[in-house]
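Action item from last meeting closed. Structure (258 res):
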């Protein structure tokens, strides 16, 4: 994979979505999960950028809703998962595919990460992960079309990436996720520190992303379903819990009620 230095910035959309804008050293750019075209078009015009690529992680409207309007204005190539619910995809992406963005001198590997949706994918490359709604900072997505087994498998794939990987999630959920995670692991000092950092960032109107995989492995209960402290918390709700997908199911159900 190429290791071109990329510039990645957030375009705010809706209440808490982030559309990620990827640039290098030219006017060419890419966007990830453009649910709303208007803020993207305004950003492109403001910075005189040429939209060449659109990366889509899953079919939910807040991730794909802006694609058709963007294509009316820009001749971008669209990459997305194998899902009939996503129109206008030029290149269907499956596990292991390499998505080349030559105008950015960049390349991303496709990772299939079902659970939030059955066809959800992530894009990994250049020490960067665009993971849509599968992995959040200190959290994970709801199991709308998959199971705890699916999510455990998906997060295990992501957990195997290099610890320095920068994670670009699609929503600003970190502060509420920290509040829940502290219920699961109240004695986790790294989580306590992350929660304070997030509180300070949000108080200053700043975003909490990207996060790093190393930090998430130390603080995110959904990446820690085999850790003793997380298992002990889950067993207070279900004494039959075992490490992995069993703990995942209990912790996610707890989060859904939180």
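Sequence:
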């Amino acid at each position: 994979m190429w290791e071109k230095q990329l510039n990645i910035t957030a375009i705010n959309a809706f209440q808490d979505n982030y559309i990620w804008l990827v640039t290098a050293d030219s006017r060419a750019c890419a966007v990830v999960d453009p649910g709303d075209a208007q803020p993207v078009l305004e950003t492109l015009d403001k910075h005189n950028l040429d939209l060449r690529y659109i990366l889509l992680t899953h079919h939910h409207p807040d991730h794909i809703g802006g694609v058709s309007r963007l294509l009316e204005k820009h001749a971008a190539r669209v990459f997305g998962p194998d899902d009939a619910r996503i129109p206008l995809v030029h290149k269907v992406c499956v596990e292991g595919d390499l998505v080349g963005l030559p105008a950015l001198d960049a390349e991303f590997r496709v990772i299939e990460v079902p659970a939030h949706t059955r066809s959800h994918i992530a894009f990994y490359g250049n020490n960067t992960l665009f993971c849509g709604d599968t992995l959040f900072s200190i959290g994970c997505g709801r199991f709308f079309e998959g199971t705890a087994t699916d999510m455990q498998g998906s997060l295990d794939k992501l957990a195997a990436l290099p610890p320095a990987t920068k994670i670009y999630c699609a929503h600003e959920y970190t502060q509420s996720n920290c509040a829940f995670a502290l219920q699961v692991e109240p004695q986790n000092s790294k989580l306590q520190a992350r929660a304070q950092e997030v509180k300070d960032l949000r108080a200053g109107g700043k975003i909490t992303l990207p996060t790093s995989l190393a930090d998430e492995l130390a603080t995110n209960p959904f990446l820690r379903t085999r850790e003793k402290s997380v298992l002990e918390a889950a067993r207070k709700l279900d004494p039959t819990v075992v490490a992995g997908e069993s703990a995942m199911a209990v912790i996610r159900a707890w989060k859904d009620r939180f």
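Note appended to the action item: The mean pLDDT is 96.
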